[in-house]
Automatic annotation (TrEMBL):
Domain Dehydrogenase E1 component: 155-451
Catalytic activities: N(6)-[(R)-lipoyl]-L-lysyl-[protein] + 3-methyl-2-oxobutanoate + H(+) = N(6)-[(R)-S(8)-2-methylpropanoyldihydrolipoyl]-L-lysyl-[protein] + CO2
Basic and acidic residues: compositionally biased ranges: 473-484
Signal peptide (residue range): none
GO cellular component, one term: mitochondrial matrix
Name of this protein: 3-methyl-2-oxobutanoate dehydrogenase (2-methylpropanoyl-transferring)
GO annotation, biological process: branched-chain amino acid catabolic process
Keywords assigned: Metal-binding, Mitochondrion, Oxidoreductase, Potassium, Transit peptide
UniProt feature coiled coil, ranges: none
Cytoplasm listed as a keyword: no
Subcellular location, record wording: Mitochondrion matrix
Length: 492
C-alpha cells in the first residue's frame, strides 16, 4: 500500500504501541509518498505507521513516542491539539532528540561518547545437559519421556553402533568401497530424530544414518545402498552411506560440504508458504559451518523467518582440521545470535538433552515460524571415513577416552537401568540379535544383481539428447573391447 504524508493530516484517535524493535517514523516530515511492501505471512507483521508531524498538529505526542521508545516503555498516542506557531519548538525538540539517537533503518541506535570496541571474545556459552557421565539426572525439572520412546531410542542407538562396526569391517574386507561411521555421535542421530515427526523434512550430511533408521529405513535398505544393487533407491549411482528416501522425507546425501544447509532453508520457506504444520532440519559439522553456504543460509533463514532447525555437530574435527584452526569465535552457537537466530549449545553425548532441545526447537520453528540453531558438542570417536586414519593427526589416547568414558550409548543405558527399564539380560539379547540382523542383511545384499549399464543414463531426460546417447554408445564399445577391466557382476 502507499501512505501519503499530507500537511492537513492529524494523529488518529486510536491507540498505538511502539513496536518491539523500537522502530519509529523518520523525524522529518515528508513531501513525497512513502512506499510500504506488504508481507506474505501473518507471522511477519509490519510496524504500524504513524502520520508525520505537520504544521497543524501538536508535536508533544510525537515527542512522547520518541522519548518513550528510548525507555522501551509502551505509550499511547492521544489526539493531537491544534497549535499555532509550532515550527520553532518542533525544530528545537527534534534537534535535541537527534543528539541522542540515530533513527537508522532497522531500529533506533543510541549515541555514546565512549570509544569502545566490541570484545573479540566473551565468556564461553554454557552447554545444556540433563544426564551426567554416570547416567544420573542432574535435575528433576527436565521433560518427561515415554518409556516406549526411550527404549526404542536405545535399541536404535545399539543398532546404529552395531551396523557401523560391521559395515566398517565389510569395507576393510573389500566387500563395499566406502563407509562413514557415526561412532560417538549416536545420541545426536537417534535422539534428534525421536523429537521430530515424519512430516518434517531432513537434509542430512553423511553421518546421520541413525535418523533414517529411526524413521523406518530397514537394515536391508542400508545394505542394498552400500552394495549398490538393483534394490538401491539410487540405483547404484551414489557412494555408499549416501542414503536417501522419498518415503521417509530424507533428502539424498550429497558429498559436497554445506550445500544441504541452503536447501533446508529454502524448503522450510516453502513449507511456510504452503501453511504446513512441519519444519525442516539440516545436519552439518563444524567444517560445514566454515563454508559460505552456512552463512548465506543462516541469514536467509533469519530474514525470511523460515521454520528450520540448523543442527551443527561440532565434533572437534573437520577431517584433519581442528576447530581451533577453523574459527576464533566460541564455537558455532554465537554465530546464530549475530544473525538474529535463536540458538543453544547442547551436550551431544546426552540423548535426553538432545531430545529436549530438538523438541522445543521444533515448536519454536512451527508455532513462531522462526529458525533455531543448535550446536551439539560431541566428539568423532571414529575416523572421518574409511579413507581416513585419524591417528595421524590426533592422539590415540584422546580417541579412546572419548570412545569409552563419553560413550553416549553407555550413558543412556545407565539411565534406563536406573529407572529399571533395562537390564543385563535384555542387553545381551539385543546385542546378539542385532549383530545377526546386520550380518544377514549384508549377505543378502551382496548376492543381488547390480543395476544395468543403462541406468547411468536414465531418469534425467524423457528423450535422451544426442550427446548423451553418444556417450552411452561409446561406453558400451569400450566395455566390449576391454571386458577384463570391468566388474563381471554388472549387466552390460
Amino acid at each position: 500500500m502507499i501512505h501519503h504524508c499530507c500537511r492537513s493530516s492529524y494523529f488518529p484517535r486510536e491507540h498505538y504501541s511502539v513496536p518491539e524493535n523500537n522502530r519509529i517514523p523518520h523525524l522529518l516530515s515528508c513531501n513525497s509518498p512513502t512506499r510500504f511492501t506488504s508481507r506474505r505471512f501473518e507471522s511477519i507483521k509490519p510496524d504500524k505507521q504513524l502520520d508525520y508531524v505537520n504544521d497543524n498538529g501538536g508535536p508533544q505526542e510525537y515527542i512522547d513516542i520518541v522519548l518513550s521508545s528510548l525507555r522501551s516503555d509502551t505509550v499511547k498516542l492521544r489526539h493531537a491539539k491544534k497549535l499555532q506557531m509550532f515550527d520553532l519548538r518542533r525544530f528545537m525538540i527534534l534537534s535535541a532528540v537527534r543528539e541522542t539517537v540515530l533513527n537508522f533503518p532497522g531500529g533506533i541506535v543510541k549515541f555514546t561518547q565512549e570509544l569502545k570496541f566490541l570484545s573479540e571474545s566473551t565468556e564461553r556459552i554454557p552447554c545444556y545437559r540433563v544426564l551426567d557421565d554416570r547416567g544420573q539426572l542432574l535435575s528433576n525439572n527436565c521433560m518427561q519421556i515415554d518409556k516406549n520412546i526411550a527404549l526404542k531410542m536405545y535399541k536404535d542407538m545399539v543398532m546404529l553402533q552395531t551396523m557401523d562396526a560391521i559395515f566398517y569391517e565389510a569395507q576393510r574386507q573389500g566387500r563395499i568401497s566406502f563407509y562413514v561411521t557415526s561412532i560417538g555421535e549416536e545420541a545426536i542421530n537417534i535422539a534428534s530424530a525421536a523429537a521430530l515427526t515424519i512430516d518434517d523434512f531432513v537434509f542430512p550430511q553423511y553421518r546421520e544414518a541413525g535418523v533414517q533408521l529411526w524413521r523406518g529405513f530397514t537394515l536391508q535398505d542400508f545394505a542394498d545402498q552400500c552394495f549398490g544393487n538393483t534394490l538401491d533407491n539410487g540405483k547404484g549411482r551414489q557412494m555408499p552411506a549416501h542414503y536417501g528416501s522419498k518415503k521417509h522425507n530424507y533428502i539424498t546425501v550429497a558429498s559436497t560440504v554445506g550445500t544441504q544447509v541452503l536447501h533446508a532453508v529454502g524448503a522450510a520457506y516453502s513449507l511456510k508458504m504452503e501453511g504446513k504444520d512441519a519444519c525442516t532440519i539440516t545436519y552439518f559439522g563444524d567444517g560445514g559451518s566454515s563454508t559460505g553456504d552456512f552463512h548465506a543460509a543462516l541469514n536467509f533463514a533469519a530474514v525470511m523467518e523460515a521454520p528450520v532447525i540448523l543442527f551443527c555437530r561440532n565434533n572437534g574435527w573437520a577431517i584433519s582440521t581442528p576447530v581451533t584452526d577453523q574459527f576464533r569465535s566460541d564455537g558455532v552457537v554465537v554465530r546464530g545470535q549475530a544473525y538474529g537466530v535463536r540458538s543453544i549449545r547442547v551436550d551431544g553425548n546426552d540423548a535426553l538433552a538432545v531430545f529436549n532441545a530438538v523438541q522445543v526447537a521444533r515448536k519454536i520453528a512451527i508455532n513462531e515460524s522462526k529458525p533455531v540453531l543448535i550446536e551439539a558438542l560431541t566428539y568423532r570417536a571414529g575416523h572421518h571415513s574409511t579413507s581416513d586414519d585419524s591417528s595421524k593427526y590426533r592422539p590415540i589416547k584422546d580417541i579412546e577416552w572419548w570412545r569409552l568414558a563419553q560413550d553416549p550409548v553407555a550413558r543412556f543405558r545407565k539411565w534406563l537401568e536406573g529407572d529399571d527399564w533395562w537390564d543385563s539380560q535384555a542387553e545381551s539379547e539385543l546385542r546378539e540379535a542385532t549383530r545377526k540382523e546386520v550380518l544377514h542383511a549384508i549377505q543378502v545384499a551382496e548376492k543381488i544383481e547390480k543395476p544395468g549399464l543403462h541406468e547411468i543414463f536414465s531418469d534425467v531426460y524423457d528423450v535422451p539428447p544426442s550427446n548423451l546417447s553418444h556417450q552411452e554408445n561409446s561406453l558400451r564399445e569400450a566395455v566390449k573391447k576391454h571386458q577384463q577391466d570391468y566388474p563381471p557382476d554388472v549387466p552390460f
